[in-house]
Design brief:
heterodimer; A: about 575 residues; alpha+beta; twelve-stranded mixed sheet; four-stranded antiparallel sheet; 20 helices; B: mainly alpha; about 75% helix
Chain lengths: ~575, ~325
């Protein structure tokens, strides 16, 4: 061997050694063993300082004395056993101010920190007390008045009691800030800042106009937007935006958890509220980890890095089936994927042409395509809400579709444009895949379908401008009451979905409006059924499905419940680990 | 040297002005309304108008540009429409993660690329050479997203030798912020466990992101070394009785480095674009992911902020390469 060769061998050996050293010593630092060691010696000063402001009564050191057995040490050390790691795509988070947050992830975080006056509990459609222990609805000439009695036990994380003053301040902020969820108060409720007042420290009076149903509005009040913030704390940090920016990194609520940190794009850390007035949560810390790739979500719950993984895809769920450590939980969501047809653009100005589309779609094959990620629904009220009928009058009938088209005078080969958004449809299927399926179904009737795929934001701009001939899109409810769908889908004057499709039918809109105002659940359900049955054939929609999401939950986790109608949809405080 | 750097910095200012004009013009040409996009399906027209007003979008384009430049000169990059935070704060949060990842990738690429390049050159046409060239070929053609998922599947999901996505294990608290780079900050804080954890988290993304650069540097080192190995001065050095190590590293490598340095400069640019994919796969909260999310939601202030940062990185990397030439070969004049 000559000189250069032997030198090369030495060099190569060095590189190999480096590689081996890297891999070889890694097992020593597997996540679990590491977690113990660091948690013990890294008390993060940053976190401790932040939560100290949010909960002045509680320094990280004083936990033991201030809050006896229930005391979560906000910002202090928490064992992995008492830590819940929740992995999900949280990239839509933009605000943690209850009056501003209106994204799925935002509502999940806020709902575990703040409490509204009333609430819905999993699997139950009746409104229950929370910060308000009771309320009284009176009908007046101008509408109705709801008088709330606050629970005198209720207190904020600071230890201060929740008063009527805090309620009026919190609701006033929503209207002052006028951000995305403000319409729930200003439009759905028809409220102004004069609509609510504190009668005494324990009593709040809310006045609703005739147009708003008190039953519907109580469900609005169960949303995170209507949750109560501590006036004194928020005012002290108000800045120029009513404390909105401050609330992104601190919390001022009365819920089971307080916000310890929000590392943008990475994770949110919630710690048990040491002064919580309800039953102390078993999990002292909840880490909500932002994981966007589905393969990574699967790995996280498979390895135990995460206790719960949200929104596993089809392949991931299949791969986890039979895993001894992970259970799969399927949960209906309340969004709807639907086709909208513009009633002023030919051929859809003819009701027969719209009906033909509904008969052209092969719902059985659609169901196969969804493979468990969605449930076929043909009405505008999803399963999970009052008024859902479960009726599916349409199934593919090409002969009938052709006949309807002929009746409408639509020539064979007529071109229609189907506009869809970029990315995925609700439930996780690619928009393009779903649209291609619809295209092949509809083309069997002799129509020619051109698919136009554009950015979702641009699609919305054109849709709002009533410019789209046929659109495939998803709709998500704003509050857990059927009116949240019935009104936009039927009321042309609400300038929402009916308007965007240029469809006006005042009779059907009237039924929907009456259904919202009817006093009992039975009366309401009967009216919604009537609305649904007319909308099937007269409306401008072909409703396709509602998504079903899949959670991967470690087997040692108990108390996991999901209900799309509650805020938040997952109560972290009912969860425990063995 | 000082004059050279000053000249480059002046050049940089012109580049920035050009970039700001182009991105601003593009933002005006895109036929969409960022305010409507930001407020979602349910926003009323008056809310959209109010938000447009708040963002200054109802002003004429020139006024908007003037406001933008004026703010920029005061160090204000505007407020992101999506995150509703100052773009400067967002960049401060996300940039260090990307710098940390890119530097780690560059270190990987330099170590493996140069070492394997030398080995391949010395073993020309041997088995090691064939292996190294094969590695380079794969590196040049394997898409990042595939490599990243493959590495995760093997080393995280299957073997569990290395941790999964993210910069730290979920149960770990990040170190107190100094530079924003977890490895450095945890060392500064003297927190050994966090340092080790962040380093392990860095390995797979750095390998993924650095693989392409490794391949390029490996090829360039190999061919450049081959040329140098047969030069007369190498024979002279050996004839003088110098050890093989000294001959190759001091006489050979130093002379072979100039073209390698050029490659480093070029691939550094590719690191930034590669970061977008790598960060998505590895849940790395860096600039690449921020840029993608901003672009998709038509968040022009954020997109312009990212573009300006990218516009600084390229010329600065080039300048460093030029200075590097000077050190490798003093005959190279900086002007």
């Amino acid at each position: 061997m000559s000189g250069p060769r032997s030198f090369a061998q030495k060099l190569l050996a060095l590189v190999l050694l480096a590689v081996l050293a890297g891999c070889g010593s890694a097992p020593a630092t597997n996540p679990a063993s590491n977690a113990n060691s660091t948690n013990a010696n890294s008390s993060n000063t940053n976190t401790a300082a932040e939560s100290a402001t949010a909960a002045p009564a509680e320094g990280s050191g004083g936990a033991a004395t201030a809050a006896p057995p229930s005391g979560g040490a906000a910002g202090g050390d928490v064992s992995p056993q008492e830590t819940l790691v929740f992995a999900a795509d949280l990239s839509d988070l933009i605000s943690l101010d209850p009056a501003v947050a209106y994204e799925f992830s935002g509502i999940e975080v806020v709902g575990n920190i703040y409490q509204p006056l009333v609430t819905l509990t999993p699997g139950d459609k009746t409104i229950k007390p929370l910060l308000a222990k009771s309320w009284d609805i009176k009908t007046t000439d101008n509408g109705s008045t709801i008088t709330f009695k606050l629970d005198e036990k209720a207190k904020f994380a600071s230890g201060a009691p929740v008063t009527a003053d805090d309620v009026v301040y919190s609701w006033g902020r929503i209207i002052d800030l006028n951000k995305s969820p403000a319409f729930l108060f200003t439009d759905v409720g028809g409220l102004t800042k004069d609509s609510f007042k504190a009668v005494d420290p324990q009593t709040v009076e809310l006045t609703l106009p005739k147009t708003a149903s008190p039953q519907v509005f109580l469900t609005v009040l169960s949303n995170s937007v209507a949750a109560i913030v501590e006036k004194k704390v928020v005012e002290a940090n108000a800045g120029s935006d009513f404390g909105s920016t401050w609330l992104n990194d601190h919390s001022a609520g009365s819920g089971p958890y307080v916000l310890s940190s929000w590392e943008r794009n990475t994770q949110n850390v919630l710690d048990a509220n040491p002064n919580y007035w309800g039953t102390a949560p078993a999990m002292k810390r909840v880490i909500m980890r932002n994981i966007t790739e589905q393969a990574n979500l699967q790995s996280a719950v498979e390895t135990g890095d995460a206790d719960i993984a949200q929104d596993l895809g089809r392949e991931q769920a299949q791969a986890l089936e039979g895993n001894p450590d992970v259970s799969l939980v399927q949960a209906n969501q309340t969004q709807l994927e639907y086709i909208g047809m513009n009633a002023k653009i030919a051929p859809f100005d003819k009701p027969e042409a719209r009906e033909a589309i509904r008969y052209a779609i092969n719902y059985d094959e659609l169901n196969t395509l969804l493979a468990g990620t969605g449930k076929i629904v043909q009405e505008i009220i999803p399963d999970g809400f009052l008024g859902y009928t479960g009726e599916t009058p349409f199934k593919q009938d090409i002969a009938k579709a052709k006949e309807l088209l002929a009746k409408a005078g639509v020539a064979d080969g007529t071109e229609i444009q189907l506009t869809i958004g970029a990315g995925i449809a609700t439930g996780g299927l690619e928009n393009a895949t779903l649209a291609a399926k619809l295209q092949s179904d509809i083309e069997k009737t002799g129509l020619k379908v051109n698919i136009q795929q554009i950015q979702a934001s641009e699609l919305l701009n054109q849709y709002r401008a009533q410019k789209l001939q046929m659109v495939m899109l998803s709709w998500g409810p704003d509050y857990p009451d059927p009116n949240t769908n019935a009104q936009p889908f039927t009321d042309y004057n609400a300038k929402s979905i009916a308007w965007r499709n240029n469809w006006q039918n005042d009779e059907i809109a009237k039924i929907a409006a009456d259904a919202a105002l009817a006093p009992t659940n039975d009366q309401r359900a009967a009216l919604y059924k009537q609305m649904t049955e007319r909308l099937f054939h007269e409306g401008p929609y072909a409703v396709l499905y509602q998504p079903v999401r899949t959670y991967g939950v470690r087997k040692n986790v108990s108390g996991f419940q999901y209900d799309p109608a509650t805020t938040p949809t997952i109560f972290f405080w009912t969860i425990s680990k063995s | 040297m000082t004059r050279f750097i000053i000249q480059r910095i002046i050049g940089l200012v012109f580049v920035m002005i050009g970039v700001s004009i182009i991105t601003f013009a593009l933002s005006q040409l895109v036929p969409v309304d960022p305010a409507a996009a930001a407020l979602g399906q349910n926003a009323r027209e008056d809310q959209i108008q109010a938000y447009r007003h708040e963002l200054g979008l109802d002003q004429p384009a020139l006024v908007q540009y003037a406001t933008y430049i004026n703010r920029l000169l005061h160090g204000d990059l505007g407020t992101s429409i999506r995150t509703r935070r100052p773009v400067r704060d967002d960049l401060r949060d996300f940039l260090p993660a990307t710098i940390e990842l890119s530097l780690a990738a560059m270190i990987v690429a330099l170590i493996f690329g140069i070492a394997l390049g030398i080995v391949a050159a010395i073993n020309r046409n041997g088995i090691l050479d064939a292996l190294a060239r094969g590695l380079a070929l794969v590196g040049g053609s394997l898409p990042i997203f595939f490599l990243g998922l493959l590495l995760l599947a093997i080393f995280y999901s299957r073997l569990r030798w290395l941790p999964g996505p993210g910069r730290l294990d979920a149960v770990m608290q990040p170190p107190a912020r100094v530079t924003g780079m977890y490895t450095i900050d945890s060392l500064l804080a003297g927190n050994w466990a966090t340092f080790k954890n962040s380093l392990w988290h860095l390995i797979l993304p750095a390998l993924t992101l650095g693989y392409y650069s490794t391949a390029m540097i490996l090829r360039m080192t190999r061919s450049s070394m081959l040329e140098v190995l047969h030069q007369d001065y190498m024979r002279t050095a050996r004839a003088k009785g110098l050890t093989e190590q000294v001959v190759i590293l001091r006489h050979g490598l130093r002379n072979a480095m100039t073209p390698v340095l050029t490659t480093v400069g070029i691939t550094f640019g590719s690191l930034l674009s590669g970061a977008v994919l790598t960060e998505t796969i590895f849940g790395w909260p860096g600039l690449g992911r921020y840029a993608t999310a901003s672009a998709v939601s038509l968040d022009f202030p954020a997109v312009m902020g990212v573009t300006l940062v990218a516009a600084i990185v390229y010329p600065v990397a080039n300048m460093l390469v030029d200075i590097g030439y000077h050190f490798l070969d003093p005959q190279v004049r900086l002007s």
